[in-house]
Structure formats: C-alpha cells, structure tokens
C-alpha cells in the first residue's frame, strides 16, 4: 500500500463520520444564524429598499431569488460531482454521503430557479415559458439531478449506489459545459449573465449589493440543509456503531 | 424605501402577483429543505431507539 | 479517471498490451457473431425508428411543407430513441452469464474491450439507422439537398450516442429494471448531439456551409472515444462488484 502522506490532517479527519458529525454539529448553528440573518436582510432590502428597474419595474425584484437560485443550483452540482470524485478516488464514505445529500437540495433549487424564471418571464416576455438558452440549460441540469436521484434510489447497496452516482455526476460534469455551449448556440434571448467574476456588474450598486447578500444567504442556507442531510445519513449508516448508540440512548 | 405606502408595496406596481408568488415559492423550497431532514432525523432516532430496545434483552 | 479503477495491479501495464489485434478484434467479432445469431434483435430498433417517424405525420399533420420543416428534428429524435431502445441489452446478457466478470478479471485492457463492444453496438444500430435515414427523409419530404447532411451528421453523431448510452447501460446493468432508468440518465446527455445533428441537417437544407457542424460533431465523437470507455469501465467495475 502506498501511503499518501501529502494530504493535510483535516482531510483524514473528514473521513471519520464521527468527527464529521461532531464538527457539523458545531458549525450548524453558526450557518443557521448566518443564513437567517442574510436572507432576512436580503429579502427586506430586495423587496422594499432596492430601486425598481426602469424597464421592468417591480417585477425586477424576482431577480433576487432567481439569480441566487440559479448560481446555487450550478455550484451544488459542482460540489456533488467533486464530492463524488473524492469518494471514488479515496474511498471516503463521508464524501459519498455529502454527494448524496447534495442531490435533492440541488434539484429543488433548480426547480426554484425554473419556477421563478417562468414567473419572471410572464410580465417580461409575456409568456410563462420561453425556450431561451439559460432556462433550457437549467431544465437540463434539473434532468441531470433527477437522473442522479433516480439512479441512487434504484441501487440498494449504499456503497454501489454512491459510486455509480459519482460516475454519473462526473460524466454530467464533463457534459455540462458542452450542453451549455450547445444550448447557448442553439438559441439566446435572455439578458447576459448578471454576475460575472471578471467584470464589474452593470447594475448600480444599490441593486447588486442586496443581490450579493441574497447569494451569500442562499449559500448559507445550502450549507445548513446539506449538513442536516449529511448528519442524518451519517447516523443511518453508522447506526451499528457504539457512538451512535450512545447518541440515541443518551 | 422605494414605496410610498403599504398598499403600493403589496401591489408592486401591478406585478404584485408575480413578485410575491416567487418569494412564496422560495420560502416553501427553503422551509421544506430544512424541515424535511429535521423530520427525517426524528424518525431515524425513533426507529433506532426502538431497535435498540428490541435488541437489548437478547444480549 | 483511470485512477478510479483501483483493482488493477499497477504494473500490469495498460500501455504495453494496447496492441489492437487481441482483445479488441476478439470482442468485436464475438459481439457481432452473437447478434448475428439473434437476428430479430437487430431489426427491432430499425422498425422502432420507422414507427416513430410514422407517428409524426399521423399525429401532427401530413402537410408536406410542415413535414419538411420538422423532418431534421424528427429523424434525429427517432434515431436517438432507437439507439436508447437497444442500449439496455448491451451488457445485460454478458452480465447475466458471467462473461462480464471474466472480462473484468482478465488482464486484457478493459478500455479496448469496452470500445469494441460499443463499436459492435454501433455497427448493429447506429449504422443501419444511418443507412435507413434517407428513406425516412423521403417519407417526411426532406429536400434532396438535406440528405447528405442527414447521413453524414448521423454517421458522426450516432457513435457518440452509443458511447454515452453505454455509460448508462454500464451503470444500470446490475439492476433488474434498467430500461427506463437508462433513458432518464442518458437523454439529457444526448442533447448536444441532437442540437448539432439536427442543425446540420437544417443547414444542409438551407444550403449553409456544414463544415462547422461536422467539426463539432466530430469533436464530440473524439471526446467520447477518449473519455467514455474510461467511464464505462469504471461503471462496469462498480456494477459488477456491487
């Protein structure tokens, strides 16, 4: 066996379900408070204080849900695929559980993004659904999530299920840029991306600062939801071990 | 504040239905994603506790 | 991704044994022979292909102008569904009689064997579909200019469909009800091929230059040739060991 000593210590600790359960127990309240605070501030700011768009009026306020949801749905997939890869390569159980916890959250967030996109489309484009490039990519992302959830629930053995879904998630990850490119090429009607990392946003700051707050809030919410699911998964898989028994009886 | 009155705030310049519907769906999604695992956790604890009780006398 | 295949002894040398004649041709010959003995399975996807394409005039409109408009998309969607239909059986019989396990245990490079199996699958579904496509084109009033685009795009696109579909087949081979699941897993991944394939046909009909479409379809095929067998191999190992 070739010993891999080049990974930092916390990486090995992460592999211990018990350590992971304890650390998430400590992190949960922090992220929960952060999520509630940022989402509350962001929502009030977005709904009441941010200026209305000069073209779209107040329906513009949907952006404060739609854009964070879209960003989160994509990064959630990324996280799932990376966690799956770590689980495949280092046979790390916790990474498998993280990947499994990500899928349903990502799917619901993708649905949220699609629903708000459709609702926003009604006053802006005049119809609930438009086959525009970015809505279509999001729909396909939702399909990828649903495929992963379906595969995971079809396989009974937890380890096989985790490995199979990891392979599928990685294949999807390779495909996402191709799908995005082809769908973009196929049709585009949407306004260009609201947030890019390299350029300054075109919106005035009183519009994008609350958006940033909402994005952070959504990430904190994701952290909370993911950790809750992860902890459930840990308890369920480690139910035979003594520390879980103590946890339940104690 | 970009609204003069509360009624105006609810109306959202005629787009009230769309805006509030979006935020309501967001709230539902967020709450289900939090409540669902919490309820699942309770269920797991109840199940495991009863399993432990069942298995205890034997050992 | 090759380091996701842990059970391979490191020194067995994927490189040194990569000469093509042994495992590749062996697996290809075997698969072709096996399906030659069960001819009905060969014809089924083709019949399905024809039937799906027949449904459109019946279900939507028999108007030649309309059909000519939708023909590229209809033929491509029908080809896509027909490939999916035959996908489930790709590894299933080998899995059930234990051949798959032997293949995984053998020192032959899995990459080559998998590639041969996919190639055999393509020769038995993708290639006949491509050859049958002009007939469908005529039935759907596709203008004669579009035929070359149709055939070439299918020729470049269907191998990619077989490669990607094989990943889904490998992931679900251990499951009793893999059929519907494969479609769920694989259809989203088929979308780029569908987009560029039908766009190539449309481009051919309107007389646009087609080089770009074929280049993209070819790029997707080469990417699939390099990456997909690795994913299929990893998926097969997982499915068989689980």
Would you kindly provide a written description of the structure presented here, covering whatever features stand out?
- The complex is a heterotrimer of chains A (250), B (59) and C (242).
- Chain A is mainly alpha-helical.
- Chain A has helices at residues 9-14, 17-49, 63-90, 93-125, 133-154, 158-186, 205-237, 242-249.
- Chain A has a domain at 65-194 and 216-227.
- Chain A contains 8 helices and no strands.
- With 59 residues, chain B is mainly alpha-helical.
- Helices cover 78% and strands 0% of the residues of chain B.
- Chain B contains 2 helices and no strands.
- The N and C termini of chain B lie far apart (68 Å).
- The mean pLDDT of chain B is 86.
- In chain C, helix 2 runs parallel beside helix 7 (126-139).
- Chains A and B meet through helix 2, helix 3, helix 4, helix 7 and helix 8 of A and helix 2 of B.
In terms of quaternary structure, the protein is heterotrimer
- Tell me how many strands of chain B there are: 0
Cα distance spanning the termini of chain B: 68 Å
Stretches of chain B where pLDDT is under 50 for at least 5 consecutive residues are none
Biggest interface, CB < 8 A? A-B, 41 and 31 residues
Listing every helix as H and every strand as E from the N terminus to the C terminus, the arrangement of chain B reads HH
Mean pLDDT of chain B: 86
The chain-level structural class of chain A is mainly alpha
Work out the helix count of chain A.
Answer: 8
Task: Give the gist of this structure.
Helix content of chain A is 77%, strand content 0%. Chain A has 250 residues and is mainly alpha-helical.
């Amino acid at each position: 066996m070739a010993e891999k000593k080049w990974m930092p210590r916390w990486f090995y600790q992460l592999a211990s379900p018990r350590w992971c359960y304890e650390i998430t127990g400590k992190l949960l309240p922090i992220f929960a408070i952060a999520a509630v605070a940022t989402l509350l501030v962001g929502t009030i700011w977005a709904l009441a204080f941010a200026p209305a768009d000069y073209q779209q009026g107040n329906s513009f306020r949907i952006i404060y849900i739609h854009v964070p949801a879209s960003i989160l749905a994509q990064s959630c997939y990324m996280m799932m695929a990376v966690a799956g890869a770590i689980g495949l390569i280092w046979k790390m159980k916790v990474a498998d559980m993280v990947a499994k916890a990500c899928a349903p959250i990502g799917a619901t967030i993708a649905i949220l993004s699609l629903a708000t996109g459709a609702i926003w489309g009604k006053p802006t484009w005049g119809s609930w659904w438009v086959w525009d490039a970015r809505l279509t990519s999001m729909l396909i992302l939702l399909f990828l999530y649903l495929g992963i959830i379906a595969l995971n629930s079809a396989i009974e053995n937890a380890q096989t299920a985790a490995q199979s879904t990891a392979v599928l998630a990685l294949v999807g990850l390779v495909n996402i840029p191709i799908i995005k490119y082809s769908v973009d090429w196929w049709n585009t009607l949407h306004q260009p991306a609201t947030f890019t990392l390299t350029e300054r946003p075109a919106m005035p700051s009183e519009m994008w600062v609350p958006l940033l707050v909402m994005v952070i809030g959504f990430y904190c919410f994701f952290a909370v939801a993911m950790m809750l699911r992860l902890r459930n998964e840990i308890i369920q898989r480690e139910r035979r071990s003594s520390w879980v028994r103590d946890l339940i009886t104690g | 504040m970009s609204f003069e009155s509360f009624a105006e705030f609810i109306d959202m310049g005629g787009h009230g239905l769309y805006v509030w519907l979006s935020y309501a769906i967001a709230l539902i999604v967020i709450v289900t994603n939090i409540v669902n695992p919490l309820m699942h956790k309770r269920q797991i604890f109840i199940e495991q506790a009863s399993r432990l009780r069942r298995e205890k006398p034997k050992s | 991704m090759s380091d996701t295949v842990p059970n391979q002894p490191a020194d067995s040398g994927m490189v040194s044994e990569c000469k093509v004649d042994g495992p590749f041709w062996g697996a290809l010959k075997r698969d072709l022979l096996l399906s030659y003995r069960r001819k009905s399975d060969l014809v089924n996807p083709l019949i399905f292909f024809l039937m799906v394409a027949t449904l459109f005039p019946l279900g939507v409109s028999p108007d030649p102008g309309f059909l000519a408009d939708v023909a590229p998309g209809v033929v491509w969607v029908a080809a896509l569904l027909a490939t999916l239909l035959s996908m489930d059986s790709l590894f299933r019989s080998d899995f059930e009689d234990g051949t798959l396990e032997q293949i995984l245990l053998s020192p032959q490079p899995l990459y080559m064997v998998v590639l041969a199996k996919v190639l055999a699958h393509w020769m038995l579904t993708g290639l006949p579909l491509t050859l049958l496509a002009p007939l469908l084109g005529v039935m759907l009033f596709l203008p004669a200019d579009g035929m070359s685009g149709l055939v070439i795009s299918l020729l470049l696109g269907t191998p990619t469909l077989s490669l990607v579909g094989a990943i889904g087949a490998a992931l679900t081979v251990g499951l009793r009800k893999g059929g519907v699941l494969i479609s769920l897993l694989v259809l989203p991944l088929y979308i780029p091929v569908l987009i560029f394939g039908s766009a190539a046909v449309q481009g051919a009909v309107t007389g646009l230059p087609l080089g770009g479409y074929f280049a993209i379809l070819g790029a997707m095929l080469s990417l699939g040739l390099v990456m997909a067998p690795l994913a299929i191999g990893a998926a097969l190992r997982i499915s068989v060991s689980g």
